[in-house]
Amino acid sequence: MQAWTKPDIPAVPGPARRLRLHDTASGGLVEVPPATGGTARMYVCGITPYDATHMGHAATYVTFDLINRLWRDAGYDVLYTQNITDVDDPLLERATATGVEWTDLAAQEIQLFRDDMTALRVIPPQHYIGVVESIDLVAGAVEDLKQAGAVYAVDGDLYFAVKADPAFGGVSNYDRDTMRELFAERGGDPDRDGKQDPLDSLLWRHERPGEPAWDSALGRGRPGWHVECSAIALKYLGMSFDVQGGGSDLIFPHHEMSASGAQVATGEHPFARAYVHQGMVGLDGEKMSKSKGNLVLVSKERLGGVDPMAIRLALLAHHYRTDWFWTSSDLADAQARLDVWRGAIGRGAGPDGGAAVDAVRAALANDLDSASALAAMDTWSTTEGEDPDAPALITQAVDALLGVKL
């Protein structure tokens, strides 16, 4: 599947910093350069294409765009893969409710997402992969799990037996009661009769009347959610890639199950070297979600005349691991900040640009402390100076490191 247009990324002089990120699995900060060679590998879970792109989505992809940019600044090649869950129950339910063909709804929302990512200057993945185009790949992954003795059937549906992975639970570190509760809330079926363990996850759903299905070696049906990411990541990145990313609501079951499936299928460990998770973005005291209908959409703001760079700055004002609530002042504050920065660039001279760039790099390398990076830029923008080269350097650095075009 086609991704979107890659923005130009200027080179920035001066020494880069080694990036440290919070790893959910270990609970601490870890350095995340490539394990070998000069290529950093990252997988970020993509959208289910309906109601795209809300600010929670945008915050997630801007966060992992920062990682991409910092790796590139440090001289690494970056191999980035993102999926699209372009067939799943929520998409089918929305299509039925709105009277739109599910394929048309998915295509419309994927294009909207592409347009939003382009406007926000998010670097696209090299591999942008839909589930529909990966049916054979997913079926092959399920066959590998069969060979490992980790698959069983319930009324024709195929399930992954989590007991097959001794490391199961090592991503989230949740207790079983918490796992079961979250599994029920987030698309799982812990109470289905015939399952060997309430936490076992669906790998392949056999064909139901009125639902899309595909022929495969597993019979006619469609993939379960978690195995799709295992299969796509293994195909395009291989095991033990550097960062597995997504929202914090994916810690369990999605990232736990994806990791376990890959580890059992390959007999290797770990699936990813670091699990990095974006906090939730809410509105009016509640989680911002499709089901609640309380979405602030990037496209609506853009079409209403909001500068996409102000949207990006509004997101960067919050630390990625923090849950926060969108308010009407977020965009106003971000636009005011953007105006100050652009005004400072237009003065034609400023204080030492190298010191400001170093401060931005240091803040971002420290677990993506974007708020401190913005504060460093605020200080530069409101300080008088006589360096005629500083505005050009700052323009390059803010573009390359923060993704903000001045």
Listing every helix as H and every strand as E from the N terminus to the C terminus, the arrangement reads: EEEHEHHEHEEHEEHEHEEEHHEHHHH
How would a textbook summarize the main sheet?
5 strands, parallel
Helix tally equals 13
What structural class results from the helix and strand content? Answer: alpha/beta
Strand content: 15-25%
- How much helix, percentage-wise, in residues? 40-55%
CA-based gyration radius: 22 Å
Query: Which ranges are low-confidence, i.e. pLDDT below 50, for 5 or more consecutive residues?
Result: none
**Biggest sheet, spatial arrangement of strands:** 5-4-3-10-11
Identify the CATH class of one domain. Alpha Beta
Keywords, separated by commas or semicolons:
alpha/beta, 13 helices, four-stranded antiparallel beta sheet, five-stranded parallel beta sheet, 14 strands, 406 residues, Rossmann fold, single chain, globular
Textual characterization of the structure:
The chain is α/β, with parallel strands linked by helices and about 400 residues long. The chain has a domain of about 260 residues: HUPs (Rossmann fold). The protein is built from 13 helices and 14 strands. The strands form four sheets. It has a five-stranded parallel beta sheet, sandwiched between helices. Strands 6-7-8-9 form a four-stranded antiparallel beta sheet. Strands 13-12-14 form a three-stranded mixed beta sheet. Strand 3, helix 1 and strand 4 form a beta-alpha-beta unit. The mean pLDDT is about 95.
